[in-house]
Amino acid sequence: MNPLQQVAQELQLSIAELRQLQRLMKTAESLAAEVGIPLDDQACLGLATHLVGLVRRLTEGKRLQGIDPSVFTQLPRDCMEIATRLIRPLYETAGQPVDPAEVGLVALHFGAARERASTSA
């Protein structure tokens, strides 16, 4: 079972949610490729799960609680930039300002994927 199928099954995604997730993951893979980050199955699974949660939080008007965005200052700039590019349209559609904590958490997925790729090479 591929990561998206696994997420769809475990989180009981609707058809609309699955389609949105597929579009987001295609964009994520493209953005990651721009900066030389291969997204392995582990990265896809973690990122997809996070993106579903993010979309659901936006739909419900909720925000992450208890995460200080300053903890993400050590993340690579390119990871933060592609994370922002990935999720900004979601926030724009919802009419909300981008949550820096969400950017940092998404960037962690990209950074972890890069780290795994560099240690397995």
From TrEMBL:
The record's annotation in Pfam families points to: PRD
List the coiled-coil residues.
4-31
PRD domain sequence ranges: 12-120
Write the record's keywords in alphabetical order, separated by commas. Coiled coil
Biological processes annotated in GO: regulation of DNA-templated transcription
What domain of life does the native source organism fall in? Bacteria
Species of origin: Thermaerobacter marianensis (strain ATCC 700841 / DSM 12885 / JCM 10246 / 7p75a)
Identification of the protein by name:
PRD domain protein
Q: Which InterPro entries match?
A: PRD (IPR011608), PRD_sf (IPR036634)
- Give the transmembrane ranges: none
Upper lineage is: Bacteria, Bacillati, Bacillota, Clostridia, Eubacteriales
